[in-house]
Design goal:
Blueprint (H helix, E strand, L loop, with lengths): L1 H17 L1 E10 L4 E3 L4 E4 L3 E6 L6 E8 L5 E4 L4 E4 L2 E4 L24 H5 L4 E5 L10 E4 L3 E9 L13 E7 L2 E12 L8 E9 L8 E16 H6 L7 E8 L4
Parallel strand pairs: 9-11
Antiparallel strand pairs: 1-15, 1-16, 2-3, 3-4, 4-5, 5-11, 6-10, 6-14, 7-8, 7-14, 12-13, 13-15, 14-15
């Protein structure tokens, strides 16, 4: 009797998990000044390099700023913002708070970010925004040949998911056995008419007085959404600096 109850519970868990899906969200760059490598998106000029990592549940505007010069540069966070579609969200709040964020996920999709590898093996840096327990600084000083990182904002709101309207069914080979395929549903979004845009805007200067301000404005969009079974997402790695995900979605909600 006990064995039968255990079997029924197991079958129920499997049935419920089969009704769950995950969505892997692929991003693209709208700004012509944004470059793309195999690993990530980045912006670069003679003064600095800004590198982006979006992988997290609901996505995260995580970025690093590397000072290429032999003199310091300064970022004014009060004049810098994350813009989600058209809504401005401030990096500087002038308050004391403590918050913890993460740019890794559970399951097989961990993405351990090595910023030094993204900027170069000799780069050294510090993270802003992972845990804050004191008053935030309005202006950040970046020494020569070093970088800072920031992971302040989620890209999607709670409860956001994408419908299967217009989705194309595609067969994708399993990573461990390319002779077998799993089913996915893919929705592609044209960059000429994007439905979801997000942007990073930074104000910086080589002068602490900011008498000569310069700006970084990098815009991105969601270019593709791939819907797959939750069990497949849990088992295989889909992580990438240029993607993010939402999971544990009821298939009936799509």
């Amino acid at each position: 009797m006990k064995f039968s109850q255990t079997l029924i519970q197991l079958l129920l868990i499997l049935a419920l998990s089969s009704c769950k899906v995950a969505q892997v969200i692929y991003t693209g760059a709208l700004s012509q000044n944004v470059n793309e490598s195999d690993k990530c998106f980045f912006y670069e000029n003679d003064t600095l390099k800004v590198t982006y990592v979006f992988w997290d549940y609901k996505g995260r505007m995580a970025f690093g700023v590397y000072n290429k010069l032999d003199v310091p540069i300064y970022i004014d966070w009060k004049k810098s913002s994350f813009i989600n579609n058209t809504k401005k969200q401030d990096y500087y709040s002038d308050r004391v708070e403590k918050r913890t964020t993460s740019v890794t996920s559970a399951y097989s999709n961990n993405l351990n970010i090595n910023w030094s590898n993204l900027f170069g093996p000799t780069a050294v840096g510090v993270t802003i925004g992972n845990e804050v327990s004191e008053r935030e600084e309005r202006v950040t000083f970046i020494p020569p040949r070093s970088y800072i990182t920031r992971t302040s904002f989620e890209i999607l709101k709670d409860g956001t998911h994408f419908t299967l309207a217009g989705a194309e069914e595609k067969s994708v080979p399993f990573p461990d056995d390319t002779s077998r395929y799993f089913k996915s549903y893919v929705v592609k979004i044209d960059d000429k008419s994007p439905t979801f845009i997000f942007r990073n805007f930074l104000t910086y200067s080589v002068k602490e007085t900011f008498e000569r301000e310069q700006y970084v404005s990098n815009e991105f969009y969601i270019r593709k959404v791939m819907t797959i079974k939750q069990g497949i997402f849990d088992k295989y790695a889909f992580s990438s600096e240029k993607r993010f995900y939402i999971d544990q979605i009821n298939k009936s909600d799509l």
